[in-house]
Write a structure and sequence with these properties.
The complex is a heterodimer of chains A (94) and B (132). By secondary structure, chain A is mainly alpha-helical. Chain A has a single domain, classed as 3-Layer(aba) Sandwich (Hypothetical Protein Ychn, Chain: A). Chain A contains four helices and three strands, in the order βαβααβα. In chain B, β1 (17-22), α2 and β2 (48-53) form a beta-alpha-beta unit. The radius of gyration of chain B is 16 Å and the shape is globular. The chains are: A mainly alpha (94), B alpha/beta (132). The A-B interface holds A 4-5, 42, 44-45, 48, 75-77, 79-81, 83-86, 89, 91, 93-94 and B 8, 11-12, 14-16, 18, 23-24, 29-31, 34, 37-38, 41-42, 44-45, 47, 127-132.
């Protein structure tokens, strides 16, 4: 799974669903744990929107990381590489 | 472990035909920029890329965009750099131009116009399609 543009907001550790709704980030984390699915946030899209992992938080002198630990940040090369080795590419949103 | 790595590098060497469809105006969102970033990344990974501009995406090809006036960096320089990476043709949906009273002569780059009837076969000729 590769998240880009506004899709990277999916990986926020601080997003809180309304009480009568399920937490999407928890469901993604569960999917990743059960099936070993990589959850990758586009690093450029994420940093632009203030979503940081430990090393980006340090690099940008920000107080703390705020992406959910089930997610990682990586470059667009990852999307291209995944496209090149996959039989199917399915995109949602745009 | 060593086997996995070998397998990964073999799979990575595959060359796929990847189509990027750009459908948004250049500065209302960062999607136009995102598409170009993917195009550059794809070129770096030696993939066979095509760009299709349709709907409001055709506005991206107008020259002399002064994006600095709204605090943005123009996408024009990046668009113009794409031929350096063998991405020298921009495919454009003709109906999208007509609806906006645009003509191909107004657009920058080497533009190939496709009709709506030609689109399905064009899209189908690619292995992967990514929308922006």
């Amino acid at each position: 799974m590769f998240f880009y543009h506004d899709g990277v907001l999916t990986g926020s550790a601080y997003a809180r669903a309304p009480q009568d709704e399920e937490s999407k980030v928890q469901r993604w984390a569960a999917l990743s744990e059960q099936h070993g699915t990589d959850l990758v946030l586009c690093i450029a899209s994420a940093v632009k929107r203030g979503l940081l992992d430990d090393s980006e938080a340090t690099r940008h002198a920000s107080p703390a990381a705020n992406i959910h630990p089930a997610f990682t940040l990586s470059g667009l090369g990852q999307l291209i590489d995944a496209s090149a080795v996959s039989d199917r590419l399915v995109t949602f949103g745009n | 472990m060593a086997n996995d790595q070998i397998q990964t590098s073999q799979r990575s060497s595959e060359r796929k035909k990847i189509l990027l469809i750009c459908r948004q105006a250049p500065y209302g969102s960062t999607l136009a920029r995102a598409a170009l970033d993917v195009a550059l990344a794809g070129a770096a990974f030696e993939q066979d890329l095509s760009l299709l501009f349709m709907d409001d995406g055709v506005w991206q090809l107008l020259p002399q965009q002064r994006a600095g006036a709204i605090g943005h960096k123009s996408i024009e320089a990046t668009l113009q750099s794409l031929p350096l990476y063998d991405l020298d043709t921009f495919h454009v949906e003709g109906e999208s131009l007509q609806q906006r009273s645009l003509e191909t002569g107004q657009l920058s780059g080497n533009v190939v116009v496709l009709t709506q009837e030609e689109l399905p076969a064009f899209i189908d000729s690619h292995d992967q399609v990514i929308g922006f």
